[in-house]
Amino acid sequence: QKEVEQNSGPLSVPEGAIASLNCTYSDRGSQSFFWYRQYSGKSPELIMFIYSNGDKEDGRFTAQLNKASQYVSLLIRDSQPSDSATYLCAVNPFFQNFVFGPGTRLSVLP
Amino acid sequence: GAVVSQHPSRVICKSGTSVKIECRSLDFQATTMFWYRQFPKQSLMLMATSNEGSKATYEQGVEKDKFLINHASLTLSTLTVTSAHPEDSSFYICSPLMEVQRSGANVLTFGAGSRLTVL
Question: Which residue on chain B is closest to A49 by alpha carbon?
Answer without folding.
Answer: B107
